[in-house]
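Hi R.,

Here are the chain sequences for the assembly we discussed:
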Amino acid sequence: MADVTSRQASVPPSLPRIVIIGCGFGGLAAAHALKDTPALVTVVDKTNHHLFQPLLYQVATAALAPTDIATATRALLRNHRNTDVLMAEVTGIDPELERITFAHRRSLEYDYLIIATGAAYSFFGNDRFEQYVKVLKTVDDASAIRTHVLGSFEAAEQTMDPEILRRLLTFVIVGSGPTGVELAGAIAELTRTTLACDFRWIRPQDVHIILCESGDRLLAGFDPELSDYAGKALADLGVEIKLKTRVSDIDAATVSFGEERIPSLNVFWCAGTKASPAAQWLAVPAARNGAIQVLEDCSVPGHPNIFAIGDVASYQSTNGKPLPGLAAVAKQHGRYVGRLLDARITSSDPVARSFRYRDYGSLAVIGRSRAVAEIFGHKLKGRLAWVIWSLVHLMLLVDLRSRLSVYLNWTWSWLTYGRGARLLTGTEVKQAVPRFFAGIGSDRNRSRA
Amino acid sequence: MADVTSRQASVPPSLPRIVIIGCGFGGLAAAHALKDTPALVTVVDKTNHHLFQPLLYQVATAALAPTDIATATRALLRNHRNTDVLMAEVTGIDPELERITFAHRRSLEYDYLIIATGAAYSFFGNDRFEQYVKVLKTVDDASAIRTHVLGSFEAAEQTMDPEILRRLLTFVIVGSGPTGVELAGAIAELTRTTLACDFRWIRPQDVHIILCESGDRLLAGFDPELSDYAGKALADLGVEIKLKTRVSDIDAATVSFGEERIPSLNVFWCAGTKASPAAQWLAVPAARNGAIQVLEDCSVPGHPNIFAIGDVASYQSTNGKPLPGLAAVAKQHGRYVGRLLDARITSSDPVARSFRYRDYGSLAVIGRSRAVAEIFGHKLKGRLAWVIWSLVHLMLLVDLRSRLSVYLNWTWSWLTYGRGARLLTGTEVKQAVPRFFAGIGSDRNRSRA
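And here is the predicted structure of the full complex:
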């Protein structure tokens, strides 16, 4: 705390104020790049933690605990003497007054602004779907999916009614990007190993896992050969794959693909993205998904002191296509803009080169020993890709504690086929679980007696 | 799954049906004792997990994750071939029909019933307090306290209003049993180490931790010498101790001790216990705290096939006092009743001896390197007691995975003074945090610019 006084004394109020909104991969990388910049940096986020989203599906399927992959933002930025962390929800930006407004506190002024607010899932105009499906973006989302999966099994164990069973144990995953594929694979493994040992009455054939995709192959961002492999590996795990299939309707207990109606209480939505509403805040042109169309240096057209990075930015790469919504893009954006501002403020190298994205490759995991990877142009699949996937993700986790904890959990699951984080907790339990249990009249346990 | 068929075939329906309600320390011990009994055992619990409550205060103070100390009941009983697990909420028992009724499913019949439903906190007739305080019994309770502590700090960081600061950063713990003492100590350590490093504006003197106790000393279950030591150790950590002090009123932002009114949004209630309503279900005599007054063999008077164990039972020990509400009592009760039923069913030793409680001692921890212990009549305090406390708790955790995970987290915290589980998540955040942030007008971050 003595810190504060000395810091206040040593920091003249004339220092430029840099505000970073959002502390995902992009915002965190920008903050790191600004660590030694003579500026007052404020990192604003509506949560108190940085989340390692690539492993969120493992929280949703009870392999990891939320704390394994989420770390307090303050802890990550503890050693940044020039940086404040502010937990607050941004409601708007006034670029004329250079001021940010909030839900629960007074406004905050900036000299430079970095917008890194990310994206949400898009329902392609069918916003009514949202109330019936679960998405996978936040820790709470992951807990909700975990509750749905585990709660469905608990209820299914107690019923013999085939219609109710079908509704409870049909898991529909919409969208076959890496998240959809990884989630489908993880639910299949959870079903086949852990749950099969622990439940007495559910039969494997009672469980249906459906992965649907509007395009003509899985993992559209990967090479077609790897898409094929992923499809076969998922089919091996018992996942039914529906290609060229669009969801036409969803209600409380059914998902429809045109004429086909599938009863399910468990629809998980991993399709499409919609950028957060920063373009509206600034009233600047947006791409079709709502992302801000930024200039070469990630600045917002007409606002040279405002930058947008990561999923909230639409960045034209040299081949004319916008860069994909990947963690790697957000990180490189963040580092670039951080360094750019540092150079501008210290006048060390006022003309920074424009941003260039380095594509190191992409990875997706299907299950135990099965993954696909494209690394530096090489295509890999199977066990080697899985080992690389594991190592890369351990390495990318933000702190040593998370790495140790994830490593421990993975080793444990690998050895025992167990899942350590099978908790039904939170308000979701009170809301969703009674719905699962509704009508399970002719229960099995009783009939046994 | 092939299991089920063979099991069904091999288990004649004439086997006695034993139902255990509640899977805390007592219920789990009973289930373990019945592992090889020729009977149909059903373990009923309203949650899906067994919770290691002695470490729950560490979840509430962000040192451990919920999954470190809560394990899926099914996983624990996986190898019990004769046992089913049922997640369901019991609403009543009909001893005439030998039948249990539930909230969301049909009733279940039993031949033998073991009631192990535990206890809740008691407000000594002031049930209106409940809406304003947080208790510490379940995983959700611990998450709620964690949200309150971390959320208060986040809001306090953003205000300079001394009244709001006071309200946010005054933590009142009511009751000085082990839970109250441990919680007060852990909040003090969290404040002095982790949070002091991570917040820029909160000063240590802004934080007030008050532990109040209606009796004349802390830890009434321990030797007075150890109570003294605990009091001094807590005072060293900055905890203000109020003895002979009763809460007279609580509202949304104040706790009153007679004339003294203390503004606080954070009142944590660890006082008194009230047994779960099983005595009412059975319409049998209850002790003052609602516990069933059981006979020497833990059976319920008038119902020789119904047993009550642990906190829901009031058991007269040989010295005429009821046994305390400890995990050790529940475990020994459970094992005793399990063995009794096994003997009765197999007719191996029909006249079991009556229950005798073995008191191995008790432990309470105050903070880093500080604990008190009474073991086999020996009084211990300080570092040695703390080492014993740590080892005993690691040993008592129900599975190897929890042990490894807790060990990793403790070592990490010990080395870094860090707390790995500092997440603000769940609906509690949406409900409580806006209340914390209400009115934080003159914020510090802004005034700095």
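The CA atoms of residues 131 and 252 of chain A lie 8 Å apart. The mean pLDDT of chain A is 89.

Let me know if anything looks off.

Best,
T.
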